[in-house]
Amino acid sequence: MHADILDEAAEREQQLIEIALANRPKPVMTFTGICHWCNEPIDKGHFCSDECRTDHERMVWAERQRSVA
After folding, report:
1. Longest dimension (CA), the chain
2. pLDDT interval class at 49 (50, 70, 90)
3. What are the two backbone dihedrals, phi and then psi, of residue 6, each rounded to the nearest 5 degrees?
4. Number of domains the chain contains
5. Which of 67, 40, 66, 68 is nearest to 53 (CA)?
6. Residue 34, beta-bridge partner list
C-alpha cells in the first residue's frame, strides 16, 4: 500500500495515538461552583484552597493504594 515503510509506520503510529485518545478515561471533575473537598462556594477551579486540593489528592492516592493491595 505504501511506497515507504516509514510512511506505513507513521500511519500506524497515528492510528495507535487516536485509539489511545479515544479510550482514555474521561475527566471526573467538572466545575460545579463548590469546592470538591469541603463544599465551600468558589468562583473558578475545583478547590477553594491549596489545603483542600492537597487533602483531596492524598485521599485519591490512599484509595488507589488500597485497591492495589
Report:
1. 60
2. very high
3. -70, -35
4. 1
5. 40
6. 41
Higher pLDDT, 31 or 68: 31
Distance CA 38, CA 45 (A): 14
How far is residue 36 from each of residues 27, 40, 66, measured CA to CA in Å? 14, 8, 21
DSSP code of residue 47:
-
Hunting for cell 461552583 — which residue is that?
Answer: 33
Instruction: Give the CA radius of gyration of the chain.
Output: 20
Closest CA to 32 of 18, 21, 16, 43: 43
Range of the domain at 52: 5-68
